[in-house]
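Morning F.,

Quick status update on the modeling queue. The single chain you submitted on Monday has been processed. Sequence for confirmation:
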Amino acid sequence: MFAASPFLIALFAAGIPLGIHLLTRRRSTTIDWGAMDFLRESISSSSSKHQRLRNFVLLLVRSLAIILLVLTFAQPLTSKLFTSSKSHETILIWDTSLSTTSLDHKNRPIQSSIKEALLNTLNELPSSSKVRILIAGAELRWLHPQSLTLNKENRQTLIQDVQKQKTDLGGIPLPQALQFALASHLPSNSIKTRDLIIFHDSQQQFLTPEDTSRWKTIQQNLQNNTETNITFADLKLPPPLEGVQTSITSLTTPLDTIPANSQLPVQITLQNHGSIHVHNAHLTWSLNGTKLEESLNIDLAPNKKRIFSRICG
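Structure tokens below.
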């Protein structure tokens, strides 16, 4: 790849030194005379070979000089020619928290849009890209502990694993997940730069003082680090209403799953993170897709919480 490839036509000029050599070399006529035998004996054969080698090297240097000059004018794109894909890694931060089960403007779970955007990114990344997926659900964990090179087999493996992943009963704050990804060790010494792509249900979050401190630390690190790029994936969702953000902040249960023919107490904390009084929040209890109970017109003042409990089973 060259920025000015038309200059490559001038590479034919590399043959000029050879043409000059062929046109100007001496054409001698052999004349026999008496002292010729003594003259031949006085000329060393090694001296003649050395002269021919010297002429060949000089001819080669002249041709190479012309080639290098032409390539300089053609401006080769060395960053694409010589930079290996091994020097770059892409980390996909995937939000699988409970809040992603809420419905979007198309009455679909937000997690569907997140997963769709994640799969599209996996399909669009070039072959030989190095990829890791960080799952930010009830806990932080890597989908695969090692960075995978996107050949045909690994790409299909990642796609299948993403499709199988379920939503977690909990969630990790985004700043904590981002800080975890930034602090992770590079999989090899050859990797120098990283792209972090965030797949999250909302770009605007209620931040605790601890989360705010994490954001400041992340921003300070990125100011001095030009080798890391962070972007949010476009989920094509409408922006949330300004000042309004109500979500489940905690879900408490003795077990992660409810055994058959058993009943367990479940406690949920609903909080208004925004600055506007909410009068019509609602909470739906369901088990395996079956609606059990629904609380309508829940009243929540700004930054206030309400706790709801239920025996599920």
